[in-house]
Amino acid sequence: MAKVKPLAITHVGIAVADLEKAIIDYSALFDFDKIERMEVGGEGVKAAMLSIGTSELELLCPTKENGAIAKFIRERGEGIHHVAIRVPDVVDAMEKAKEIGMRVLDEKPRSGARSAKAAFVHPKSFHGVLLEFYDR
Ligand code: CO
């Protein structure tokens, strides 16, 4: 099996309880070139992407109490939620991960921010880190 080529760390996802407060706190020190806010509709999350060179911080804030980010903050507090790695082909990466016994959390790629394709792999497969395959 040809392995999957990791192309870049596109972003690091950070769970925050208050999005505007988090943007203010991160911006107190850093002069970000771009801050882009977005709703991640079906998932009960609003987000802000803070540009750092060619990668980003993705601040994730729950908009409803039963979503994944709300649950994460309740159980573990604010902090790093996932690391996103750009791969050439999300579906191919998912198939190869499954082939070697990893627990891929998505049946098929979900639409990530900015119409990117995305899929998550269980933290058990990566020593405690929730990994996101991302195609842009
Ligand atoms: Co992400």
Describe the structure.
The chain is an alpha+beta fold. The protein has one domain (8-135): 2,3-Dihydroxybiphenyl 1,2-Dioxygenase, domain 1, CATH 3.10.180.10. It has helices spanning 19-29, 68-76, 90-99, and strands spanning 8-15, 35-40, 45-52, 55-62, 79-86, 110-111, 117-121, 131-134. An 8-stranded mixed sheet has the order 2-3-4-1-5-8-7-6. Cobalt (II) ion (CO) binds at residues 11, 13, 58, 82, 84, 132. Cobalt (II) ion is lined by residues 11, 13, 58, 82, 84, 132.
Question: Mean pLDDT score, rounded?
Answer: 94
Count of DSSP strands? 8
From the 3D structure, determine the CATH topology: 2,3-Dihydroxybiphenyl 1,2-Dioxygenase, domain 1
Bound molecules: cobalt (II) ion
What structural class do the secondary elements suggest?
alpha+beta
Strand content: 35-45%
Count of alpha and pi helical runs = 3
| Low-pLDDT windows of residues | none
Classify the helix fraction into a percent range. Answer: 10-25%
Do you know the CATH architecture?
Answer: Roll
Sequence of strands across the biggest β-sheet: 2-3-4-1-5-8-7-6
User: Separation of termini?
Assistant: 24 Å
How many structural domains? 1
Shape: globular
Would you list the SSEs in sequence order as H and E? EHEEEHEHEEE
Radius of gyration: 15 Å
